[in-house]
Please model this.
Amino acid sequence: MPARVCWGMSGKFALAGETRLQQEVRKSRFLAIAAPVESAEGALAFVARVAEPGATHNAWAFRIGSHYRFSDDGEPAGTAGKPVLQAIDGQNVDRAAVVIARWFGGIKLGAGGLARAYGGCAAECLRQAAKQPLIRRVTVRVRCDFAAAAALHARLHEHLAIKREESFDEDGVELALELPEDEVFGFADRVRDLTRGRGRVTPVDPARPVVSASRRKPA
Model:
């Protein structure tokens, strides 16, 4: 195992569910819809599902870690999708998509007015949304003999570990597990105790932790 470093919380938040907010700006109606997403494919599916067919525009953006995309959907370049993305980042939200439908009310807002309207509507929607902290999760490989495997499986939930793979050979069992980063060393101690020092816990690509939503309820 590497040196004991527990980063814990990532400092960002995930949305607890779908949230909607409606605003009117100089007779244009804006409807913001925000939701948690786990992949680019999931984000695009959300956009397709909630886009209002009768709206003049459906601008959108999503952020999943370092990956992001946005669309102005016919609004002047940089006045819609990008302000929505900036609102997501400004609220410290990750793994989220926001769609904003606009119904034109007959008064032009101008580039600055559009950016403020889209960005402000997205930011207010995200401010009102229920959130939960994101926790850094890492993948580890665990090697143990058959005698310890059953006891190890029974204790996985105590460390919020999720089994991703399992394989067997003549010497025992190998598991690929995903668990919160600050649980890794306690889990390694547990494996050592259950296997009487014979088990091994090895991080998989520790420089690129998987980030997923905490199971804990927000305060």
Q: What stands out?
A: Confidence is low (pLDDT under 50) at residues 1-9, 206-219. Residues 17-129 form a domain with the Ribosomal Protein S5; domain 2 fold (CATH 3.30.230.30). The CA atoms of residues 61 and 70 lie 4 Å apart.
